[in-house]
Amino acid sequence: MAAERRLYVGPSLRRLRRDLGLTQADMAGDLEVSASYVALLERNHRPLSAEMLLRLAQTYKLDMSTLAGTSGADETARLQAVLKDPMFADIDLPALETSDLTGNFPGITEALLRLYTTYREEQLALADRGAETHETGGEGSDATDPVAESRRFLAARRNSFPTLDDAAERIAQGVAGHDNLVGYLKARHGLKVRRLPSAVMVGSIRRLDWHRREILLDDGLDTASQMFQLALQLAYLEMREEVDAVLAEGTFITDSGERLTRRALASYAAAAVIMPYSAFARAVEARRYDVEALARQFGASFEQTAHRLTTLQKPGQERVPFFFIRVDPAGNVSKRLDGAGFPFARHGGGCPLWSVHQVFKTPREIVTQWLELPDGQRFFSIARTVTAGGGSFGSPRVERAIALGCAAEHAGKLVYTQDQPAEAATPIGVTCRLCHRTECTARSAPPIGRQILPDDIRRTSLPFGFSDS
Length: 469
What we know:
Residues 13-67 form the HTH cro/C1-type domain. The protein is α+β, with helices and mostly antiparallel strands.
């Protein structure tokens, strides 16, 4: 007779206890065991017996598979994703050893994951300082730039926060039981929703009035924006602990950098409530990443949906990794997210040959484009304008362009590539100062390190002529 398989559920049990808001002593009291025994279970120093598994399921009304079926799976997937980094390429790392580590040493696993995330943040900070020094010839100065701080925090984690996705998914199930966000907020928090004219809102688009137990919304917002603002308010009400826990993983030099990051995480949580991870991940494959169709299915805007597509990197449930950028007509970048390894210009303007800078000529029309960088890397992008503001005659509107893209090896999964041969790629650069395509007629500045030819005898048709040396 085969030996009984021992069940170690330390990380899952600890997560369950924290989700329930219990101390080890609280759980021990509920289960009629000692607190030290709970501690041993959480550290995987003791296996979980069938009797204790049943007691847990009955006490906390759980499906036993919640503990028995997924013990350490999330941590294993996260660690395996980290170990794919090229710096580990020469180390033999069998999958079984990874599973053993996460199962038997959850504390060490968590320490390694935190250490790697910190390493990624420092690498990105170093790249920022190096890029600025290279381009300006001076000292890097964006270490205290709050926007750069926030972008580094998100980029180091590939804009993916599974704990927020899990919490939002649970909230979304509750919302579904009350038909919509308005009903849920009323039933769960006793908050009514009122829509008021912009003049009454006095510059706000959303305001929580605790005295009257109301959430006030600007009635000029479109339906998708109203739902997003309600989801955002709900995230602040119910996911503050989860957001604080994620934020605590970072180190911020400026208060503004921390506040910008908190706002980004709250918006992430709001999008995850409207577009729950599991349902959204299934839908993107069924609809082949058709952003407009997905937006209609989930009642979101084009930009909200495109933004959500960049977050689908939950370990073990990954989808196509995307990058995202939002620019205004002057080329200023107001949002930038990278999960696809796209080398964004960290300083200075982007390449004018990229369609994201040209779609203002064709408002709200999706423009597709294959891109090829000087080193031969290929990406596929879609770009379209989006509008913020408006809602009534005379209300100010802001037109911006967004681009969403992925590496060439993933492009075949997108509905947009069906009539787009990869051979027709547009040669672009990161930014003129770092691009050495000497034949480019759109160049605005010479590349670093190239000598410009004099034009007293001959003037070329290009903006600059360069010597061969």
